[in-house]
Amino acid sequence: MTTADEDILRVEGLDFAYPDGTVALRGIDLEIHRGEFLAIIGQNGSGKTTLAKHFNGLLKPSEGDVIIFGMNTKNASVAETTSRVGYVFQNPDHQLCHRTVEEEAAFGPKNLGLSDEEIKNRVNEQLKFFDLEARRNEDPFFLSKAERQRLAIASVLAMHPELIVVDEPTTGMDHRQSVAMLELLDELNKKGYGVVIITHNMQLVAEYAKRVIVMLEGRVCLDGSPREAFTKTEILEKTFLKPPQIARLSLMLSDFGFGVTLNTKEFVETLNEKSIGTRRKR
Amino acid sequence: MSTGRLSKSTVKGFIGYIRTDTPFFSLSPVTKLAVTLILSAIVLLIDDPRPLLVCLIFTLVLILLAKAPIKAMKLYTIGVLWMSCMCIFFNVIFRQSGDVVFQYGLLRVTTEGTIRGASILLKLLSMAYLTIFFVTSLRDRDIVYGLYTLRVPYSMIFVAALTFRSWGLFQTDLDTIRDAMTSRGLDFNKGNAFARAKKFVSVLVPLISILVKRIDDITKSVETRAFGSGIQRTYYHNIGLEHIDYAIIVGCFAALILTGILRYYYGLLSFSPYGL
Amino acid sequence: MKMIQVQDLWWKYEAGQQYALKGINTEIDKGEFVAIVGPNDHGKSTLCMCMNGLIPHAFRGEIKGNLEVAGIDTIHSDIPTISTKVGTVLQNPESQFVQMTVVDNIVFGPENLGISPEEIKRRVGSLTKLTRTEGLLERTPDELSGGQKQRVAIASALAMTPEILILDEPTSELDPVGKTEVFSLLGRLKREANLTVVLVSHLMEEIVKYADRVMLLYEGKIELDAPPAEFFSNGDYLADKGVELPQVTEAGYLFDRSKRLLNAYPLTLESAYNAFRNVLTEGR
After folding, report:
1. Which residues contact B208 (CB under 8 A, 6 or more apart)?
2. Which in A123, B276, C113, C191 has the greatest CB count within 10 A?
3. Cβ-contact A112, A146 below 8 angstroms
4. Exposed e or buried b for every residue in B233-261, given b needs 16+ CB within 10 A?
5. Cα B34 to chain center, whole Å?
6. Which of B231, B236, B238 would you mutate first to test chain C, the one with the most C CBs within 10 A?
7. Is residue C203 part of a domain?
8. Distance, in angstroms, between A231 CA and closest chain B CA?
9. CATH number of the structural domain spanning residue C71
10. pLDDT tens digit string along B15-66?
11. Do residues C231 and C255 both lie within one domain?
């Protein structure tokens, strides 16, 4: 039985090279705890996706170990690991293969060998949560991009994993859709699911992620809260990642006592606080 | 990655790159195709193992000049030896005529069998090495440029180019789809042949839907670049044949005709010196 | 002469329940850089496809009204003719790469138009310089990053020597480096090339740097059309329509809606720094 603070995922000395020899990951050490909301960021080719694929056992380390809920991925089959760590791919079209939304959601539980009763319950639960009840009998091919993305996550969640990895959940979405998606993931996190997102959207990272892992050339070069990460400007420069505009602005105003602000609301509150004195003078 | 003397070729993953510092690189792809086909035809016309040996040596020289990687030669040689073993086996064992050279129970090796067997082996090896020559002196794009030279209709050339270009994407999509299925508990290695086939079919559906969407995007992209405008197309690359290309192609044809004459008019190059 | 003139344009896709574009009226001058923003599926891409002739010639549906680009009536012309005036860059870096090498992809358009090889060579020379793709000519697409592929896509569109360049979310599938590469190129195009640019994007921080005008397309209609400063001063309205402001502008808006302390809502990081520093030192 794991306690609240216990690691659900441990990575020790992970090195990984692809069959053709390219080294993708070097010396990764990290722990993920129950109920975390973590973002992995970095340029394409930095190893983000490669690392994430080790989390559900799709890839096995060349050197080192990845231990998921006490199981070493080298000794466990992918079927065993994927029931505890879910992975949602960037393009939902790579996942969706059934003729109806309902069948799609039932796919995971079916592979787990659950009873028909249990499968039905899980499908209903997920379709309700992801607001896809009305689309139950439709063909996934004809759903909108946002609906397909939700269906992809729903079908992975139907397996009741304790940790879910979502690769680029907001590519191609507009502001409202992106926020809705992250709100959904945040709600899942509050319900107890561990959430790992791979993303380029620094604004959303600042708003929702509690922990950020920055990858550069196969190594973890930063591991901390978004606030901590955004202050380390020299490291971020090397990765060509920029903190959200408002964070950069607050850093520029550090002479006036500003710390890193993660969103505009926080910035304006700080600005009001710091400028009360000068404004009163007028 | 320095690609100074290397350039991407066909059969990626197997051979990968071709050498650009060989005498063959600047020849037209049509020439290389002609050399391969015509020399294969010549080899097929000859039965006598002695001239076949000469042909084999000639093809080996070609490969060495083309600086083909040894890895390719090893693989092809083993493949051919395996195939020819079967042919030789049947020829050697079941031909009953000719002087017996060696006998062990039902296994009877005769002179006729040996000669026919050698002939087959040399033919297969020559043709295999000609294939190596073809593949290691041409890149994907050279094949397409060759199609231009041959005045193949542009729609076919476009499809060829697009297929070559998309092959890598197709592979990546297939891998990603398999990963996505595996990530939801589908074990591709479990179950009998029928169950496994069914699982494979479930990979096809997303593949086709991705293909359809990609074709839609590609169509928009090419239409806005005047594809299918009906205007007479021009070609940026210089894709004609040089004097040296013509010389080589004509030379090969001449050799083919000469072989034909020697074989069917004069009765040489066949099994007749051996009384077969 | 207006470079793009749209008069009472209506369009309904054959499979659509309602009109995707409802009476669009607008004009774009030569050399203007116009950004189109708005929620997804509200008509931005549809309007772009009307401008390059894909609508109505490659799609089935009903069209009403007029659209002229560089003097050509798109509705009664054909896509190849329009393509000599309008270049298009789409979202997906992979699908626009339809040949085996960079140079083949760039020359694809002019070859289709029957342009002479000498002229094509000249265009390749100047375009690769502009798009910083000189060293990439013999590369295959799997050797290129997303940003490089999109720069090649832009070069390929410009190879047709269009007067108008339409970019429909060119950076949404790129990583931050790729996004920077593409926007730097757009900046160079704005300064050096004599192009009229129509850009659909969600990246407000970049849009304010380059756009002369920002247009909101909502439910098939142009609901707002103004230079960036004016456009982004409508904080509540834009929030209601699902359009975000650049963060620094939003900060200005939340801090001082009535603009008693600030003269204007800042649009860029630099102007925001100056404005807020003044507030902190002098109270205004």
Report:
1. none
2. A123
3. no
4. bbbbeebeeeeebeebbeebeeebeebee
5. 13
6. B236
7. yes
8. 35
9. 3.40.50.300
10. 556 676 777 777 888 888 888 899 999 999 888 888 889 989 998 888 888 7
11. no
